[in-house]
Amino acid sequence: MNLERFLRDRQRDWTELEQLSQRAGRRPDRLGPHELLRLGTLYRAAAADLALARRRWPGDPAVRRLEQAVGQARHLVYDTQTRRESAVRFFTDTYWRRIAERPSVLAAAAVLLFGPWLLASLWALTDPGGASGLVPGEYRSVTEPRTPGRSLGLGVQERAAFSSMIMTNNIQVTFLAFAGGAVAGLGTALVLLFNGTLLGTVSGLAFGAGNGVAFTELVVAHGLLELSCIVVSGAAGLRLGWSIVDPGRLPRSVAVVREGRRAVEMVLGTVPWLVVAGLVEGFITPAGLGLTAAATIGLLLGITFWSLTFWRGTLIPRRRRASDVAGGAVPGPAGAERAADAEGEAQGEPAPAGP
Q: Where do the domains of the chain lie?
């Protein structure tokens, strides 16, 4: 191939690449999904052309033009997935999408937590003697008589220390549930099974001893939110583990990195909610507000969490996809990420198979 034919055949694509790069500037999300895919195709072709031109015609002006075109487009192609995201956008958008995008994994985590809870509760009700031997000593006080609606008598400093201890413990459980995904999800499953069994046994002992109302008052204000956080962290661990077991058509290392990053986002986004649950448990629960007030607080927190999951994690992405199909444009920065995923699928690299 001579230089004249090379320029005649390839210059049109170089011009198109330059135009797309100029339109995007420093923000690839300014382009639609099809344009992003086209940008990647043109960039790879131009990079190959540049390698050929440098070897055959090193002094020609076409080489300098190609260098500029490839250099201008490179950051748009390779920086899309690693771009920085604001904390506000993460906590208002990305976190909720991460929770909602794998509903079957959420369901599996919930079953692993609440299934043992139900079975252990029934066992504790029918065999309180045997169940008492399973739980640690500090939990056996749930069988002692207690009047509902009575304050625990903790001072402000004691409540602060109690709240701090609870938050630390909850965060440790969350990270342990996530880390268990590194052993193909088995560690995560064990953490969920253990916590479900322990909590179910304690609740069964409390109800069996006639302290059901008092026990519910002590746990309902913070419990719904706290259990929701445990389910989400468990889902993150299972998600990581499943990418090890079944990476789909992706290389296992790529699948683990991809799903691991998204699982970490789920865990990090859950930490502030664990702090809220710890504050409620440390300061509101010991006040003895009564079952009605405690249940109202618990329901408000639980409904808020899952309403945000449905709204920000399901409804808004669904509307965006509908808008993409209707208009071919990507509203908002999240479009670049979706377009990058689409490019991987177009090249035969779909997201990892799994629940």
A: 3-78, 88-331
